[in-house]
Design a protein that fits this description.
Radius of gyration: 24 Å
Number of helices: 12
Helix content: 25-40%
Low-confidence stretches: none
Structural class: alpha/beta
Mean pLDDT: 96
Strand content: 25-35%
Largest sheet: 7 strands, mixed
Number of strands: 21
Length: 416
């Protein structure tokens, strides 16, 4: 029999609404076939002998079927739901099952992107393949690369089927696996970073909004580049004509280069990493932007203080920091960091200047984020109009019932 995981009373509510995880403390008991063939056993999770990586079925306390998932007792997220079908339907042909999932994800992206675009092909739980991230990069030579992360056991056990589906549907020139995130340790998995198949170029050049960007797919942050801000960078670029722009936490210089394309008269792009600044300088050269754009290696917090002391002013300031908190415990500490950079940026803006302020931390939610912007405005004695509230692009679909899928906040503001 397929092992059955039964939830405690009322724990099925979020799962029924679309939440794709079952935590260890939500499980009442597990029913499974005894290893010695003596029949069906019913035990608490701690006494369950079902092997990690096994496909199980999830039930409410009432006995209502909720879906099928992969069990992993090493993780606090004990079951990740891979489908709302019964397990025997999934296991009957796993190759076909994942072929359809990858095809569905690809068909969704084709509504918004064409062949030459780079975009997130698969967004984990939001595309119903928990723990899987796949970026599709198209370089300037029209070679398609897939950079893929298997971040949970629930997708690791189907790696062969998933890669086969991607090769069949996408026909990539190269696939690089970046399963080198520390979260794999919590899943009982080793980190992996290597080519899957024939080795290709590790540093490629893509086009974004008609701008050339070098991407290090093997050693860059996460999957090499942050595709989620693509549309936001284009919008911000359109606001920069004739403006003096400060682009902070720049990473690759993409916001700054979009500003140059939009007609900015001067752009200063800042990052604390010398490696990042070296990459920005290469991107400046690629786009013949050296007459307008400069890369600076500095701590953004220190530089904002320095610019304020010097009385410098900018017409547009972009704040796109890394996540200041990756858990709920550090929200207050993160609040202080976000507030400081926003307050100082407001003081550096010219009259009616534009502030583009972002947070990519799910735990620092919209209520905290916009409340922080309001307090920063109050303390800097400014008034702020939020012109637009934006998030990630359509290649990062938000799954209702799974709030973590809506993580990016990008506010375009006028500071008075």
């Amino acid at each position: 029999m397929i092992p059955r995981v039964f939830l405690k009373s009322k724990e099925e509510v979020e799962v029924a609404q679309g939440f794709p995880w079952v935590f260890d403390n939500e499980i009442s008991h597990v029913k499974f076939e005894s290893e010695d063939g003596s029949g069906v056993k019913q035990t608490e999770l701690s006494d369950c002998t079902v092997e990690d990586g096994t496909v199980v079925e999830i039930f409410a306390k009432s006995g209502a079927f909720l879906g099928s998932g992969v069990i992993n007792r090493k993780s606090k997220i004990t079951v990740r739901i891979i489908g709302r079908e019964h397990a025997d339907q999934i296991l009957a042909d796993t190759e076909d099952y994942y072929l359809k999932k990858v095809q569905d994800a690809y068909d969704l992206r084709k509504l918004h992107y064409d062949f030459k675009d780079s975009y997130r092909l698969i967004y984990g739980e939001s595309d119903f393949i928990p723990g899987l991230i796949a970026e599709r990069y198209c370089d300037v030579n029209k070679n398609v690369y897939i950079v893929i992360q298997f971040l949970s056991l629930s997708c690791e056990i189907f790696k062969k089927e998933i890669l086969a589906a991607i090769r069949k549907i996408i026909k990539p020139y190269g696939i690089f696996e970046r399963s080198d995130a520390s979260v794999r340790e919590k899943e009982g998995l080793k980190e992996v970073s290597c080519w899957n198949g024939e080795a290709r170029e590790e540093v490629i050049t893509i086009r974004e909004n008609d701008i050339k960007i070098q991407v290090d797919i093997a050693h860059g942050q996460k999957t090499g580049y942050f595709l989620d801000q693509k549309n936001n960078r284009k919008i911000v670029g359109s606001l920069c004509e004739g403006k003096r722009v400060l682009d902070t936490f720049t990473h690759t210089g993409a916001f700054g280069l979009n500003a140059v394309k939009g007609g900015a008269k001067e752009v200063v792009s800042v990052d604390i990493s010398q490696e990042a600044v070296d990459m920005v300088n290469k991107n400046i050269e690629l786009n013949d932007a050296s007459s307008k754009m400069t890369a600076v290696c500095a701590d953004v917090f220190d530089l904002l203080k320095k610019y304020e002391a010097e009385g410098k002013k900018f017409d547009v300031i972009i704040l796109d920091p890394p996540a200041f908190t990756k858990n709920a415990k550090n929200i207050q500490k993160a609040y202080g960091g976000y507030k400081e950079i926003n307050l100082r940026a407001m003081r550096l803006l010219t009259e009616n200047g534009i502030l583009v302020t972002c947070s990519c931390s799910y735990f620092f939610d919209s209520e905290h984020f916009y409340g922080m912007v309001m307090k920063a405005a109050e303390d800097s004695k400014k008034r702020v109009q939020v012109l637009e509230k934006r998030g990630a692009g359509p290649d990062h679909p938000v799954l209702l019932g799974y709030p973590k899928s809506e993580y990016l906040k990008c506010a375009i503001c006028r500071v008075i």
